[in-house]
Write a structure and sequence with these properties.
By secondary structure, the protein is mainly α. The protein has one domain (21-86). It has helices spanning 2-18, 22-33, 39-46, 53-67, 71-85, 88-91. The N and C termini lie far apart (29 Å). InterPro entries: Secretoglobin, Secretoglobin_sf. Its main location: secreted. It is found in: Secreted. Keywords: Secreted, Signal. Residues 1-18 form the signal peptide.
């Protein structure tokens, strides 16, 4: 879970720097950390971006991990996301 989160946060500035997919990525991250979105709804929203069953299982596992986090952890993650979006690389997009 930690590795997935680190990789996802590392990739954010690259996507934003390229100017592609920021809105899609933002929506995906928002639904990932939203405790009101259940796993089924989450997977249905991402169905077009999941190339296979193994990827779907990984995203299901990731969403379940976020559902088991405290509100404090989710708020910190959200703040980190906003810090990345406010960074030099994403500010232009």
């Amino acid at each position: 879970m930690k590795l997935v989160t680190v990789l996802m946060l590392t990739a954010l500035p690259l996507y934003c720097y390229a100017g592609i997919g920021c809105d899609l990525l933002d929506d995906m991250i928002s639904t990932t950390i939203d405790p009101d979105v259940d796993v089924t709804e989450y997977i249905n929203n991402l169905k077009d971006f999941l190339p296979g069953e193994e990827t779907e299982k990984a995203y299901t596992f990731m969403k379940e991990c976020f559902l088991h986090q405290s509100e404090e952890t989710l708020e910190k993650f959200s703040k980190t996301q906003q810090a990345i979006y406010s960074s030099f690389w994403c500010a232009r997009h």
